[in-house]
Amino acid sequence: MSEDGRGRVSVPIPALADPDRLRSLDETRLDAVPDEAFDRFARLVGDLLDVPVALVSLVDADRQFFPGATGLPEPWAARRETPLTHSFCQHVVDIEMPLVLPDARLYPRVRLNLAIEDLGVVAYAGMPLTDLDGRVLGSLCAIDSKPRAWSKEQLRTLADLAAACSSELRLRIAVRGAEQARRRAEEAHDRLAMLAGMSEMLGGTLDVATAVDRLGHAMVPLLADWCLITLVDPAGRPRTVTGVHRDAEREADLTRFAELLTTGLSAESQIRSVLRTGRPAVRAVADLDDVARGTTRPELVPLADRLGIGSHLTVPITAAGDRVIGAVTLVNRQGRRGFDASDLRTAQDIGVRAGQAVGNSRLYGEQRHVAEVLQHSMLPSLPAVPGIELAARYLPAADRVEVGGDWYDAFVQPDGELIAAIGDVAGHDIEAAATMGQLRNLVRGNAYGRNDPVEDLVAHLDQAMGGLRVPTVATAVLARVRPAAGGLTVFWCNAGHPPPLLVRADGTVSVADGRGPLLGLARPPRRTGRTLTLAPGDTLLLHTDGLIERRDQPIDEGQAELLAHLAAGGPGVPLDLLCDRLLAAAHRREDDVALLALRAG
C-alpha cells in the first residue's frame, strides 16, 4: 500500500504489473500522444452517449494514458495521462469486466479516487479493451460530471464501440509483430550459416541429453566463454542444468555449479524470471553480486568467480505454442565484450531451434512409449502349466517409435497340452501390428481344441490367410508341447522362421534344424512337422530374427554368436535370467526382438 500525497492509502493492483499484459501493451506502440483513430473512438462515444468526456485509456504499471480523448480539462488534455491515483480504468483491468457507476462518490472502491476531485468524474462507464489473448489493456470509458443513470442502449453502444476499439488495438499489435518478424528475417540472413548448421546438428539426434550437449559445444566459445542449459519439468521447475566451459580445467567447477543451480535459484534469479515470463534478460555488465542475488546457495559465488563473469544473457527455450521448456544462459568473462542486442537475437534464435530439438526428442520419447504400450498390449500373458516353466520377452528396436510385427503366444488346450507360437509379420508400422494381431488370433482360432498334427495346423493357417486375404507374408514356428515320460515331447513346424534353439540341462546348446517356406504364399506348400524331446531342465528357445540379424553381418554369424553366448552361460541359468541376458547381449539390435522360452520341469 502507498499514500497518494493527500493522506489517502491506495492498494496496488497486481494485474497492472502482469508482464504479458505489459508486453502486449508495449506492442501497441501507443503512448500519451494523440492518435487519430482512437480520438475518433472517443468522439463517437461522446456524441452517441452525450457525455462531456470520453477516453480511450490504456493502463500500464504506474499510469494511465489516453491515445484517444475528448473533453478532458486542462492540464490533463495536454498531458494525455494521469497517475493511477486519478484512474478509474485501472479497476476495469483489475476486474476484467465492465465498470458502471451512476455516482462514483457512493462506491467504496473509487469514492476516494482523486479523479472525482481533480477531473470532476462523477458518473463513469468503462468497457474493457483487450488483446487477442483476452488480456485487458485498458478501457473505453464515458464520463459525466454529474450523477447519471446509464441506459441499456447506452451501455450496449459503448460495448460495441469497445469491441471495435479492441480490434484496432489488436491490429496495431499484429502490425508490430509483423514488423518484428520481418526484421528478424533480415537479421537471420547474416546468421544463416551458423544457425542452419546448428539446426542440422540438433536434428541429428532424438536423445535429449545428446542434443543439449551438442548445443552447448556449438555455442562455446563462438558465442560465449561458458553456457548453462536449463530444462524444466512439467510444473516449470528446473529439472536439469548442464553446462560447457571453454576452459577444460573448469569442467569440475561448472559441473558443480550446474548441480547446485538445479535447486538453488532464488526469487531474483534471472534464469527463474526467464522461465516464468518467457522474456529474455541481458546484463551487459555483470559481477558476482548478480550471482549472490540470484541464488540461495552461497557456494555458487566462489564457483562463479573461478568460472569468470563479466556479462550474461538468458533466453527461453520454447516449444510449440510458445511454451517455455527451458532456458539458455550465455556468460562472458571480464575482458570479453558485453552482450548486446545482436547477441540476444542470435541467442533467441538458438532458443527456438533448441526448443524444436528438445521438443522433438520429448515427442519421440512419448511416441515411443505409446508404441511400446500398444505393442505390449497385443502380447498375451503366459499361462501357468504344470511341469512347464515359461518366460517371454519383447523389446522394440532402439531407434524407432513404430510398433512392429513380432509376436509370441502360448495357450493351453482343453486336454491340457500347451500350444506355443512365435512369428514375425513383415513391416514396422501400425498396419504390420494390426496384421500381427490378426495372425495371432488366426493361430489361436485355428489351433484351439484341435488335435491335428502341427503341420496340418500350419497348412490350415496358410489356407486361412489366403481365403481371408490377410495382406502380408509372415514367418512363424508353431509347437504343440505334450507331457511325456521323463519330460516333454514337442511337435513343431517351422514356416520360414529362425529355427528354435535347444539348451540342455548340462549346458549343451544346439539348433533344432528344419525350416519351411513362409506363411501367406500365393501357392501354399506342403508342410513338414518335426519332433524333439525335452528332459527335465532342458530349455526350448523360440525367437525372432531381431536377436541374431545385423546389417553388417550374415545371419548365420549372428546365430553362431547367439549359440556361443548361450554356451558361455553354463548350465542351470534361471529362465528369466537367461532371457534377460539374451536381450542385454542384443544391445546393437536393429529390429524388434521377441523371445519365448519353455523349460521342462
UniProtKB/TrEMBL annotation:
Top-level lineage group: Bacteria
UniProt cross-references to InterPro entries, sorted A to Z: Bact_Sigma-Reg, GAF, GAF-like_dom_sf, PPM-type-like_dom_sf, PPM-type_phosphatase-like_dom
Pfam name, any one: SpoIIE
Keywords per UniProt: Hydrolase
SUPFAM superfamilies on file: GAF domain-like (SSF55781), PP2C-like (SSF81606)
Residue ranges annotated for the GAF domain, each copy included: 33-179, 203-368
The keyword Transcription belongs to this UniProt entry's keyword annotation: no
PPM-type phosphatase domain location: 385-600
UniProt protein name: SpoIIE family protein phosphatase
